[in-house]
Amino acid sequence: MSLTAHKVYGPKGIGALYVRRRDRRVQLAPQQHGGGHERGMRSGTLYTPQIVGFGKAVEIALAEQTTENQRLTQLRQRLWEQLSQVEGIHLNGNAEKRLAGNLSISVEGVDGAALLLGLQPVMAISSGSACSSAHTAPSYVLTALGHPQQLAYASIRFGIGRFNTEEEIDIVAKHAIATIQSLQNKR
Question: Which family is this sequence assigned to (predicted)?
Answer without folding.
Answer: Belongs to the class-V pyridoxal-phosphate-dependent aminotransferase family. NifS/IscS subfamily.
